[in-house]
Amino acid sequence: MDLPYQRNPNRTGASRPTVDNNIDSRMLSALELLHYSERFSGQLFAFCFNSSDDCEDLLTDLRVLHAASIRQVLFCTADNTLIKKLDLWNRTGHRFLILEAHSTELESASFIGRIQRSLSSGHLPLIVLPSFPRPIEEQLQTKSQVVHCAVALGATKVFFPGQRANLEISGRTVSCPSTKQLERALAHPEETNFPIEELRFFVEQQRLHEVELVKVEAKRGGIFGEVFTHSGSGTLFTNEFPNILRPAQESDVMDILAIMQPYVRKGTMKAMTEDELLTSIHSFTVFTVNEQIVALAALIEYEDCYELAKLCTLPRYQARGRARNLVIRLQEQGQLAGKRGLFALTVSENVGEFFLQMGFQSCPRESLPQSWQKNYDFARPSQSYWYPISRL
Question: How does DSSP classify residue 318?
Fold first, then answer.
């Protein structure tokens, strides 16, 4: 068993617990979980399952959502095994409520009102539907009725667990496709791994209802990874606007720490404590999509220049030009401040190529400001880049 504390055998007398080297990472993971729990608390998520097996595989995920006070409504074909399991869980304090319905009832005001009353009384309704039709057109018609019902109930997200969760366009995984990418995929169906009818369904339903639709893998942890982590785990169909670049605020600290965490784990970015980030928060600029921070970077002053640091982007929002726009904004800030230039360091070859594309030039680390050098670990295998700012 991996314990967060262990006794130091080299000490004599009263022993003191020493902190496990991984405890900071664990605490950041816990903060990320709690952050999203607070963000989504009280919201209603809807789930449309193709089969009772898929629902059963994800019951633990749904229990975590319940513990985070996220309300749920489930739409599923159900068998006796699933119903018996839900009955058993109800004996431990859960409040699953089985409601049978035909798909046509999902658009009925009286049935929607019945579900709403069950939600208001604290139940977690499972709407048992007949088997989904086999022709994809009829199956998608039923799913469109599910979306209509979910939106009428006030759901902010509708999840579709299944076997194929990750959308690929032109051989590349796209976990949050842009409007342009979706238009291209619909025009060239041979370039995507989703059935074109299904992809068109997601696009049309998202535009019609302006609700977030999420395709996730129907295996344990799929919903958890999508809801409680910055990286997500499925494919998100959502309206991307507004896109805003703005100075970071103190209330952004937890978001920034969580976005940086995967980079810290990989060793490509030095960790920051919450106190360190709060102290330097005004040096950060963030890129937001629908008020969610998806990219960020900092300008740290050293003598007559700035270091461009902590550049990172959420995986599902990469390759969209946001990092480019962010760096351009910081280059402009450096010029407005009358600085001689900007410098950046990275251990990633891909990031180094990105800096070269942005007008930076490779340079020796020994040429960087002395005030920066005295606190830098030169044993770190990083490459430095310099962006000269022309003085007007």
Answer: -
Nearest to 167 by CA among 196, 141, 146, 144: 196
Q: What is 23-237's CATH number?
A: 3.40.1160.10
Label residue 290 left, alpha or beta by phi (over 0 means left) and psi (-120 to 50 means alpha): left
For the chain, how far is it from start to end, CA to CA, in angstroms? Answer: 63
**DSSP symbols for 281-304:** GGGEEEEEETTEEEEEEEEEEETT
CA distance 150 to 181: 27
Strand order in the sheet with 292-302: 243-247, 284-289, 292-302, 305-313, 341-346, 383-388, 361-363
Provide the residue ranges of all domains of the chain, joining segments of one domain with +.
23-237, 243-388
Q: Per CATH, the architecture of 243-388 is what? A: 3-Layer(aba) Sandwich (3.40)
pTM (2 decimals)? Answer: 0.76
pLDDT in tens, the chain (392 residues): 333 333 333 434 444 444 445 676 677 678 778 878 888 999 999 999 988 899 999 999 999 999 999 999 999 987 888 888 898 888 888 889 999 999 889 999 999 999 999 999 999 999 999 877 678 888 899 999 999 999 999 999 999 998 889 999 888 888 888 888 899 999 999 999 999 999 999 999 999 998 999 999 999 999 999 998 877 888 999 876 677 899 999 999 988 988 898 888 888 888 888 899 999 999 999 998 877 888 999 999 998 999 999 999 887 787 777 889 999 999 999 999 999 999 999 988 889 999 999 999 999 999 999 999 998 888 888 999 999 986 54
Nearest to 39 by CA among 228, 225, 247: 228
Domains 23-237 and 243-388 share a fold: no
Residue with tokens 């159900």: 78
Backbone angles phi, psi at 303, to 5 degrees: 55, -120
Q: Compute the distance between CA of residue 48 and CA of residue 78 in angstroms, rounded to an integer.
A: 12
Q: Which one, of 111, 123, 132, 145, lies nearest residue 72 by Cα? A: 123
- How many CB atoms sit inside 10 A of residue 220's CB? 12
- Distance from C-alpha of 164 to C-alpha of 142, rounded to nearest angstrom: 19
The encoded tokens of residue 67 equal 């513990």
